[in-house]
Amino acid sequence: MHLIVVGLNHKTADVEIRERCYFPNETLPKSFDLLKAYPSLSGAVILSTCNRVEIYASVVNVKAGFDDITDFISCYHSIPRETLTPFLYKKNCQNAVNHLFKVISGIDSMVIGEYQIQGQVRDSYYAAQSNNATDSYLNKVFQSAINTGKRIRSETAIGQGTVSVATLATELIKKVFSERKRFHVLLIGAGKMAGLTAANLQEFNGCSIIIANRSLTKAEELAVRFNGKVTAYDKRYEAIQEADVIIVSTASENYTVQFEEVAKLMQLHPTRTKMFIDLSLPRNIDPAINRIENCMVYSIDDINQMIDLNVSKRQMEIEQAEKIISEVSEDYYNWYYAQIIMPTMHEIKSKLDILKTSTIANYKSTFGAMTDTQQGLIQEMMDAYSEKLIRVIMKNIKTVTSKDDMVTIVEALKNTLSVDTAINEEIQSFKKREQ
């Protein structure tokens, strides 16, 4: 069994590709049903966020697993393989494990150390479990990853002082409206991102907030927290007409702010500047609005480009996080390798036990009459020798870094010790004498 991951992220694909590959939460049961139908996949976890789409899986055949996951993403999202493949990365075994640990720690994020990813990985794993899509390999590695994320958060300062997408959005607003004493913001959506954005907007004394959401109750709850007002979702275009900034963080599969409607509004006030900020994936603001005069549309990728990519300030924390990853990885690899070694070790030990009994029987005449105590002592000595031999073999095998090499060595070990020939002959001889 191997662990593999196939995916794409902000480093390999822009928002147009990522949104096409996105897996909404409500479609996950169907997604897992289709994934589990692929014969090469023993288990799978789908991680889908604004900045990455990754599928982790346990497989026997790595190449077949890579091909099947690529085929699944291609077919599910109706993207030709030749279009999709250039954006994908594929990792297996230790590389896949280390990648997951770096993802959950925030090292692989656009914003180094961002904390949302830890909960996103955890929730993705739980979703796979609830859909009966995981196995012992995936359970072990994701439980190890979750513990790794917790340790890194508590033992390093990697997440301290990080900027969020919501923070960057408000910084962008500040730059554009720096000379305005008052301006109106419309938030479409009332989830976590909307809450973070509203909290950041509190620093603007002249900012008034209006909230539109499909669930009026959620909109009202958010409005109470941040002294805002509420408008009905189906009246959002009337609110857009009055707003200077429109921030959308919804989970719709289609545009919730459409080009045609905004174009009509701008004909009424053609000189009024409007800023549209889309924090959704898939995008919920039609990017064509950017073509309308005095309208500016910013996607989540545009916001992310404002991030200071110089991570030197966090280098010490990254190094500490990587040390923790190395420690946890060692524990996982010990378990992982044991899954390969232990069946062979049990087989060898059981046959060594029979060979021990056979050897003692052969030397009974040489020893003469032995008391039960003497016979027990000889058995203990031979047991100790067998256990020591097994421990030495296991310790040496664990130093092998490649799982493929380990499988080869284990098979060679069987042949070298003649487990299938000499010992079997001795076993049969012993059985005949006992009869």
UniProtKB/TrEMBL annotation:
Its EC number is 1.2.1.70. Residues 320-415 form the Tetrapyrrole biosynthesis glutamyl-tRNA reductase dimerisation domain. NADP(+) binds at G189, A190, G191, K192, M193, A194. Keywords: NADP, Oxidoreductase, Porphyrin biosynthesis. One of its GO terms (molecular function) is NADP binding. The record marks H99 as: Important for activity. Pathway: Porphyrin-containing compound metabolism; protoporphyrin-IX biosynthesis; 5-aminolevulinate from L-glutamyl-tRNA(Glu): step 1/2. The keyword rRNA-binding does not apply. The active site is at C50 (nucleophile). InterPro entries: 4pyrrol_synth_GluRdtase, 4pyrrol_synth_GluRdtase_dimer, 4pyrrol_synth_GluRdtase_N, GluRdtase_CS, GluRdtase_dimer_dom_sf, GluRdtase_N_sf, NAD(P)-bd_dom_sf, Shikm_DH/Glu-tRNA_Rdtase. Catalyzes the NADPH-dependent reduction of glutamyl-tRNA(Glu) to glutamate 1-semialdehyde (GSA). During catalysis, the active site Cys acts as a nucleophile attacking the alpha-carbonyl group of tRNA-bound glutamate with the formation of a thioester intermediate between enzyme and glutamate, and the concomitant release of tRNA(Glu). The thioester intermediate is finally reduced by direct hydride transfer from NADPH, to form the product GSA. Belongs to the glutamyl-tRNA reductase family. Possesses an unusual extended V-shaped dimeric structure with each monomer consisting of three distinct domains arranged along a curved 'spinal' alpha-helix. The N-terminal catalytic domain specifically recognizes the glutamate moiety of the substrate. The second domain is the NADPH-binding domain, and the third C-terminal domain is responsible for dimerization. Homodimer. This is Glutamyl-tRNA reductase. It comes from Microbacter margulisiae. The lineage of its organism: Bacteria, Pseudomonadati, Bacteroidota, Bacteroidia, Bacteroidales.
